[in-house]
Inverse folding.
C-alpha cells in the first residue's frame, strides 16, 4: 500500500509544481488553491509512505515521478521544448524509479 500512496503522492507533486507556475507568484486565486491542496496531499502521502519505506527511496521515487509528469505536462500543454534526447532522459528517470521499486 505504501508504494501506491507514494506514486499518487508523486502525481500530486506534479500537480502542485504545475499550479505553482500558473499561480504567477500566488497572484491568481485558483492556481494558488490547487497548489496548496496539491502540496498538502503530496506531502501527506510522502509522509505516509515513509512510515514503511526508506527516506532515500521514497524521496527519489516521489521526485522522479513529479519531475517526469511536470515536464511531460509542460511539453504537451505549455510549449516546453521537446526533443528525442529529453524524452530519452525522462525515460531514464522512469527506469530508475522502476529499478528502485524492483530492488525494494
Amino acid at each position: 500500500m505504501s508504494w501506491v500512496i507514494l506514486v499518487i503522492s508523486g502525481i500530486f507533486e506534479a500537480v502542485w509544481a504545475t499550479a505553482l507556475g500558473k499561480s504567477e507568484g500566488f497572484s491568481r486565486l485558483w492556481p494558488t488553491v490547487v497548489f496548496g491542496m496539491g502540496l498538502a496531499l503530496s506531502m501527506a502521502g510522502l509522509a505516509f509512505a515513509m512510515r514503511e519505506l526508506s527516506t532515500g527511496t521514497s524521496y527519489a521515487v516521489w521526485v522522479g515521478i513529479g519531475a517526469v509528469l511536470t515536464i511531460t505536462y509542460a511539453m504537451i500543454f505549455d510549449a516546453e521544448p521537446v526533443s528525442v534526447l529529453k524524452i530519452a532522459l525522462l525515460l531514464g528517470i522512469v527506469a530508475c524509479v522502476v529499478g528502485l521499486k524492483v530492488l525494494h
Observations:
- Residues 79 and 96 are 26 Å apart (CA to CA).
- The chain is about 80% helix and 0% strand.
- Helices lie at 2-22, 29-49, 55-77, 84-103.
